[in-house]
Amino acid sequence: MKLSVIIPIYNEFNNIDEVINRINAVKLPPEISDLEMILIDDGSKDGTTTKLEKYKNDKTMIVHESRLNFGKGTATRIGLTYVTGDVVLIQDADLEYDPADYPKLLKPIIEQGSQIVYGSRFLNKTKRLDGMAYKNWMINVLLRVITNVLYGSKLTDEATAYKMFKTEVLKKIDLRSKRFEFCPEVTAKVLKQGYQITEVPISYKGRSVEEGKKIRWFDGIEAIWTLLKYRILN
Q1: CA-CA distance, 147 to 91, in Å (whole number)?
Q2: Phi and psi angles of residue 28, each rounded to the nearest 5 degrees, phi first
Q3: What residue ranges do the domains of the chain occupy?
Q4: ∠170-82-16 over CA atoms, to 5°?
Q5: Considering only CA atoms, which of 72, 101, 88, 1 is closest in space to residue 38?
Q6: N or C end of the chain, less CB within 10 A?
């Protein structure tokens, strides 16, 4: 199998090299014969665009540049058009999520035939996570509850950035999100279509707004509306 990693990037000059190095350092299961990284520069203004130039000649990477900043949802949808792998994963371009968890995410797909795997930051954990602000934790809890009530699921972490799919599944989903509402949109649509989501525990180290975190409180409101909207719509 081939693994495709879509990396939406916006103003991550200080982190993108380290993220790519960590991905390259992962010891993938023997069933994964190939890896491709799809780097989507979403209108960066901090020098990230220039830094990505050096990866354009790497045959394992695809670099796409957008002049304007459209948002994570748009960047992910663009990235999906380049995917050639059997399995696709969304990787944020910061250091909150560790690529060392890739084998955990891949295991249910390889061994159990799972079609969708989410990396849960809260599975088997009872305390607030390292670096996660209290208000962000509360929004995560609220999103989990709303998702489970509306869609009859038992997720522990709807808003996780680590979402892995069999490519054929994700490409069947009519994605329309532009910003951070990608996560609730894709969750709502796969659950509504009857897919099962497998969760595995992952590590997480949150960062602050000062360190570059881009999601804001109003994105939580948008996420709640997205979950409600796709429960109602066909």
Answers
A1: 22
A2: -80, 155
A3: 2-232
A4: 100
A5: 88
A6: C
Q: Measured between alpha carbons, how far is 12 from 8 in angstroms, rounded to an integer?
A: 10
| pLDDT for position 126 | 62
Helices (H), the chain: 16-25, 48-52, 72-82, 102-107, 134-151, 167-170, 182-192, 217-232
DSSP 8-state assignment for residue 55: G
Looking from the CA of 115 toward its CB, the CA atoms found within 13 Å total: 13
Tell which residue, 57, 73, 31, has the closest CA to residue 174: 73
Confidence at residue 127, expressed as pLDDT on a 0 to 100 scale? 66
CATH number of 2-232: 3.90.550.10
Structure tokens at 183: 């996560």
